[in-house]
Amino acid sequence: MASFTWTLFFVGLCLKVTQTEASSWTIKMPSSIKGLPGSCVVIPCSFSYPDPGKKVTEFNGIWIEMTDYEKFSYKGNAVSITMISELNTIGFSIKEEVTEGQSVSASCSVAHSCPTSPPVFTWSHSGEEHVQPQQLKDGQWSATSTLTFQPTSADHNKPVQCTVTYKGGQHHKTSRTLKVKHAPVNVKVEHKSEVKEGEAVQLRCSSDAYPPATSYQWHNETGSQLHRGHDYTLLKVSRHAGALYCTAINTIGSGKSNAVQLNVLYAPEIAEASSCTSEGDMVKCVCISDSKPPSMLYFVLPDRVLPSTKVEKHGSVTIGTLHAELGSSVALCCLANNTIGNANLTLSLPVNSKMLNLYIIIASVAES
């Protein structure tokens, strides 16, 4: 450790005594004092004198020049000031395993040499702080900062850090990792982002807890229990499956996940309400499909495919509308498809008035 030594010769008393009288007086002070560069040191000094009935009320330390016999110096008493380059070790204490919501105290202490500008403590956590100074021996002091706070689950496995800043700007820090017992938090249902209708899907309940969760329960959105266990397997998923959630439990308490609605994919189903109506010479056909993902809709004649004139999407329901003059066609097919499958439905076409008159005329001529 690199150091520099300054030597100070402490001066005697500014008292009018003869050398003979002064020789019965003694002075006591440390032989060395350590301090940080930029900080300060206090040199303790005590005197003993032969007549305790006469109390001296003032002492003065001076640099003496031996030119006056009424002043006496103790040249044998010297103090060396050592400037240290390495910071003192910080004493740190805290109960490393605590329970959420209960108060815990952390103490940070350090020795120093400058009571007029003691070290400043900074904590990583907020709370109630109390600083206690204490005088030691040989010009040394100690300062202890005690922080009282209530840890939460967010503090689990996180460091509690104490930073000490000395006069002159030098600083030193130390920390301890805190273990916080808490009920499960961040409870989640882990599952595939998509599942096809009719397939099996495995659900898993996860959480952050200390100690770890030891039991799990599964419930539907009405609160009815479905299963006990870390994993829950649905063998045949239906699009009509309701939301569910899981509860994780440990020795401290329990935590519940948000309700989860599975994203069930299924092939199109064309509603029976799909139909065609006549609007003068035009035909209006409406095809309604329910699917996930939404369907693409087409109207198919024997000789061609007609795109929808208008398409509306309402969640899983797709409505395709066709306005067209279809001539003598008597039927067309509505076709719906998505990435899961397809469906089709034949729609009967109404007979328009012109074609009906033509049929009547042809029938009359034939009867003649």
From TrEMBL:
Ig-like domain: residues covered = 85-179, 184-263
Look up keyword Ribonucleoprotein and say if it applies: no
A GO-annotated cellular component = membrane
Q: Which domain of life is it from?
A: Eukaryota
Q: How does it sit in the membrane?
A: Single-pass membrane protein
Q: Which residues form the signal peptide?
A: 1-22
Q: Which UniProt keywords apply?
A: Disulfide bond, Membrane, Signal
Q: Which PANTHER family does UniProt cross-reference here?
A: SCHWANN CELL MYELIN PROTEIN-RELATED (PTHR46484:SF1), SI:CH211-171H4.5-RELATED (PTHR46484)
Protein name in UniProt:
Ig-like domain-containing protein
Taxonomic classification, please? Eukaryota, Metazoa, Chordata, Craniata, Vertebrata
